[in-house]
Amino acid sequence: MPKQQRRTFTTEFKKQMVQLFENGKSRAAIVEEYDLTASALDRWIRQSQASGSFKEKDNRSPEENELIALRKENQRLLMENDILKQAALIMGRK
Q1: Which one, 16, 18, 27, 86, has least CB within 10 Å?
Q2: What is the pLDDT of residue 1?
Q3: Residue pair 38/31 in contact by the 8 Å Cβ criterion
Q4: What letter would DSSP give residue 5?
């Protein structure tokens, strides 16, 4: 069975699906009529209610943002450390 290709949806489409739900259309009816997954529709509803945005970065918790920042900083520090080790080796040879 071939793997289903991942589809992308515009912000406007997501807003329309959330509005249908908020206006009383059932989740099951929306999912079936528009050939969506229930998890995608649930995520759009949750994001719309939480932040009004469908962008992942707008829906992250402060802890998730901090973790991402710390991972970036850690990666940068590891690179700087490697550069300093290389420089020490080069200077040691001269």
Answers
A1: 86
A2: 65
A3: yes
A4: P
The answer to whether the CB of 46 falls within 8 A of the CB of 39 is: no
Per-residue DSSP letters for 38-94?
HHHHHHHHHHHHHTS---GGGG--HHHHHHHHHHHHHHHHHHHHHHHHHHHHHHHH-
Locus of tokens 């970065």: 57
Q: Which structure tokens are listed for 35?
A: 């050939």
List pLDDT tens digits, range 20-76.
999 999 999 999 999 999 999 999 998 888 777 777 777 778 898 899 999 999 999
User: Is residue 79 scored above 70 in pLDDT?
Assistant: yes
Residue 2 has pLDDT above 70, yes or no: no
Q: What 3-state class would DSSP assign to 35?
A: coil
Q: How far apart are CA 27 and CA 23, in angstroms?
A: 11
